[in-house]
Structure formats: structure tokens, C-alpha cells
Amino acid sequence: MPVIHPSVCALAAGAIFLTIPACAFAQQVTPLPEGTIPVGVSIAGLDVSGLAATSAKGLVLDTIVAPHRAPMPLTFHGRTLEIDPDAAGYAADVDAAVIAAMQAVPALGAITNIPLVETISTSKLRDVIKWRAGQIAIPARDATVSLNRAFRPVVSKAAFGYTVDVSKAVALLAPALIAARPATPYALPERRVAPEVTSIGPVIVVTRRSFKLRLYSGTRRIRTYPVAIGQPAYPTPTGNFRVIQKQMNPTWFPPSSPWAAGLGPVPPGSSNPLGTRWIGTSAPAIGMHGTPNPSSIGSAASHGCIRMYISDVENLYPRVQVGTPVFIR
Questions:
Q1: How does DSSP assign 236-269, residue by residue?
Q2: Cα dihedral 234→237→242→246 (10° resolution)
Q3: Per the residue annotation, which of 5, 23, 289, 303 is the catalytic one?
Q4: What is the edge-to-edge ordering of all strands in the sheet holding 79-83?
Q5: 54 Cβ partners below 8 Å, 6+ apart?
Q6: Beta bridge partner(s), residue 193
Q7: Per-residue exposure over 82-119, b if at least 16 CB sit within 10 Å of its own CB, e if not
Q8: How far apart are CA 203 and CA 153, in angstroms?
């Protein structure tokens, strides 16, 4: 700014000259052009003094808004992902901040800071987090049982799963999305998911070749029972099944098969072909039951079911429940 420098002033009085040491000096400030933001005004801490409205808006958009609209990196159980602030409803009212800056009248030597209003839609943010949670959730793993080559049960242990705690994630990310990005990604809050099946109880393994039914508790063998299996014309099916029904003193209803035509229902009693207990499996019309013909045990004599001594099936009956795995090999 131009400055008027002090000069020496002389005053003549007749023949006598008096010298004045110095004159007072003043500064003149050149006013800013019309339509520019006054000196000493900032928006969200960003100096916009002397800028036209368009320039100030561009500076705020580039310096503050653009970084806040960039994808935010996150982590979840070792996985890296991002969330899009625009999808979460990010908005910044830059126009209102620039208008307020143009109208500001800062005090001499003071700084007037105009806030920039930035918002996030919590409902949109919640929807985005739910969507991402569905992609990255680690499902719980139920305890399962299978057979090894020796026809013995092998148990896979249950494990907790993990999913995003959506409410906590919204509370964390809503303010974070309009703040300076941290040096490290945010770790999404998590919630444990319990498995539905945490242990393996009784397991039935039937080996047709040896005419044996073995009862296990998990991997520990409890008891072995001799059985009869289906004859060649009506073989006992192989596969992985489960117990679906239990009946004491059942009534035998003949299946829809030529060999049973005209036999009619047989009520409980000594002549009932099912004996005193029925343990039905998910293999159609196949189950374990007692037999009034004990001499058939140890042979391929049934029409597909697994026959047992009456005392043996009565021993087995309370040890299993609906859902017990049944492996037939």
C-alpha cells in the first residue's frame, strides 16, 4: 500500500528560518474491489479474503468438500473396504457459507470464521452399512459330524460368526465422514453371532456289510447292536439321514408296495412287525424297529428297514432324539 513519507517543513519569518523536525504521517489502505470477500474472513478455517464468490466456492469445494466426498477406507476382520459418502447422503451448503462470507464485517485486525454446514443422512448411512454388512459378515459355523473312511464319526467344532454392529457403526461414521480422514482406516464395530448347533450328541452309524448299528456320543462309541438289513430285492438305502420320528408301541401301516398289498394296519402287540419301538429316519419309509422274528437279525431279511432285537431297540430308543444323525453305509 502506498505510504506518504515524512518530510521536513520550513517556515520563513523575515530573515529568520525555523526548522520543524518532522511532520506527522498517515497510511492509506486501498479498498478491495466490489463483490469480493472482506479481509479477515475465512470459511471453515480456510482463508477466503479478497476472493470473488465463484473463486471462494471453488476453493472450498476443492480444499474441504472434495476430500470429504472421497471414499472412506474401513476394515472388518482383516478385510479392507470402502464406504461412499455420497451414498450416505453427504451434503455441504457451500453457497450459504460463501454468501455469509461476502456479508461479513470483520473487526479491524480480527478474523471472522464462517462455518461450513456439512451433513450426513443417518437413514441412508444405515442402509449403506446394512448392505455392506451383508457382503462382509462372517457366518457362524454349526458343529457338524461326518464319517471318515473307517466309518467313524468326525466332529467339526462350532465357531462364532461376526457381523457389523450397524447402530454402533452409524454412530461412529456419521461424524467421521465430515471430519478429516484419519491416518489409518476405521475398524467397523462388530457383533458376535452364535452358532445354532454347538455340540454333537448321539450319532447312529449302520454298516450293512457287518450287520451292525453303532451308537456314538460325538466321536465316542457307546454301544454296538446287531441288526438285520434289507434283502437284495429291497435294499436298505445308503446315505446321510436323520431321525424324524419316534413312536412307542406303534401301529404298523403297510407301505404302498406290492409285497404289502392287502396286509392292512396291524395294531400294537406281539404280531406287530415293528415290535414295541419305531425310530423313523429321513430315508423314505425306512427306520429302526424291533422284530418279532429275532432269527432274522444278522441277515439281509427286511424290506429295507433296520431290524433290531426288541430289547436292543428299547435300549436305543431313549438314547436318541429327533434330529439325531443317521449314517448308513
A1: PPPEEEEEEEEEESPPB---SSGGGTT---B-SS
A2: 10
A3: 289
A4: 79-83, 72-76, 186-187
A5: none
A6: 161
A7: ebebeebbbebebeebbebbbebebeeeeebbbebebe
A8: 8
**SS3 state of residue 128:** helix
Which residue from 286, 287, 284, 312 is spatially nearest to 298, judged by alpha carbons?
Answer: 312
The residue assigned the cell 478474523 is 111
Q: Which residue, among 144, 279, 282, has the nearest Cα to 201 in the 3D structure? A: 144
For the question of residue 5 being annotated catalytic, the response is no
Catalytic residue among 9, 23, 68, 305: 305
Helix ranges, 157-219 (H): 166-176
| N- to C-terminal Cα separation, the chain | 100
pTM, whole model, 2 decimals? 0.70
Block residue for cell numbers 461412499? 84
3-state secondary structure of 190: strand
Residue 291: strand, helix, or coil: coil
Lookup: cell for 31: 479498498
**Per-residue pLDDT of the chain in tens (329 residues, 90 and over written 9):** 333 333 323 333 333 333 334 333 333 445 667 789 999 999 999 999 999 999 999 999 999 999 999 999 999 999 999 999 999 999 999 999 999 999 999 988 899 999 999 999 999 999 999 999 999 999 999 999 999 999 999 999 999 999 999 999 999 999 999 998 888 999 999 999 999 999 999 999 999 999 999 999 999 999 999 999 999 999 999 999 999 999 999 999 888 888 877 787 899 998 899 999 999 999 999 999 999 999 999 999 999 999 999 999 999 999 999 999 999 99
